[in-house]
Design goal:
This protein is 49% helix and 14% strand. The protein is an alpha+beta fold. It has a six-stranded antiparallel beta sheet, sandwiched between helices. A two-stranded parallel ribbon has the order 2-8. Strand 3 and strand 4 (51-55) form a beta hairpin. Helix 3 crosses helix 4 and helix 6 packs parallel to helix 10 (274-289). The protein is globular, with a radius of gyration of 21 Å. 29% of the residues are buried.
């Protein structure tokens, strides 16, 4: 039976080895704290089904550079990277592990804002002559742009695990609207252009909150009412979310119908906070609907 090490390099990602908040530790205790944290980062932190997140090792770098064919041109390896990793026994072309790692990257993106990418999953044969065997490329994670860096703190790992477990438990074949919303969320996440991001985000909102074929004001209201009812904790918050989603849908219509010249009058000179806020509402909606 063949054995493989499966590796997914993470880009723009770090787990800082820091001591957060006030503390009453002695210098020796602080030193021991950092040593223990670093040990976890090297050995790996289990997330789900044996998939660990850890610092890239020298062995990983050698394995990834040992391919008899060139690495994809957008793969850039460095010693300060992190990877998702798992050892498996069986057929390298059974893609369950790659799917799990894709869910981990999606879970990171759903956990909070900030840019992290994991587009490639590599299979390294370790049971015979050590060599790179194959790779899987998720074309929806194109990494066309680099946004704000993504730092996962140790105290956020339990929340990340919960999201991964929920994603693993969802039957997307039966929840097609939720699946489409997740796909559009990730596509928007990778887009460079403000307008393309907004279009993808609004398609995701339609998938989540418009249950039947409707158009015009009815569709706009369903999105605004659905999201505000889901996320709003009181009437004031619900009204704020509703107004924002109606405005977002209006902007989407301007773009879709070729009236982009009106955008400046609608949201200023491409307000840099508008799309991130819309993304946050979608992020929170998806997480709620995973329950």
């Amino acid at each position: 039976m063949k054995k493989y090490k499966v590796i997914c390099p993470l880009y723009n990602f770090q787990i800082p080895n820091v001591l957060l908040g006030p503390h009453k530790l002695s210098p020796e205790e602080v030193m021991n704290f950092f040593k223990e944290q670093e040990k976890k980062l090297v050995e790996g932190i289990n997330l789900v089904d044996g998939v660990k997140i850890r610092r890239i090792s020298k062995e990983d770098l050698e394995d990834l550079k040992s391919m008899f064919f060139p690495l994809p041109s957008d793969i850039r390896l460095s010693s300060n990277m992190f990877v998702l990793a798992k050892c498996i026994t069986g057929d390298a072309h059974e893609f369950k592990t790659a799917q799990i790692m894709g869910n981990v990257v999606l879970a990171m993106r759903l956990l909070k804002s900030g840019y992290v990418s994991g587009s490639y999953v590599f299979y390294v044969l370790i049971s015979e002559k050590r060599k790179m065997d194959s790779w899987v490329w998720n074309e929806e994670r194109r990494r066309e742009t680099w946004g704000l860096g993504y730092a996962l703190n140790f105290d956020e790992i339990p929340a990340l695990r919960k999201i991964v477990e929920k994603l693993q438990g969802v039957d997307f074949a039966k929840r097609k609207r939720l699946h489409l919303a997740c796909k559009r969320f990730e596509r928007a996440y990778e887009e460079v252009d403000f307008k393309d991001q907004l279009i993808d985000l609004m398609i995701a909102f339609e998938a989540l909150f418009v249950r039947r074929e409707t158009a015009g004001s009815s569709q706009k209201q369903k999105i605004a009412n659905g999201c505000s009812d889901l996320l709003g904790r009181n009437e004031e918050e619900k009204e704020e979310i509703k107004c924002f989603l109606l405005k977002a849908r209006y902007i989407r219509d301007l773009i879709a119908h070729g009236a982009e010249y009106k955008l400046k009058d609608t949201i200023g000179k491409y307000d840099i906070d508008f799309v991130p806020k819309l993304e946050d509402y979608l992020r929170d909606s998806i997480k709620k609907l995973l329950d």
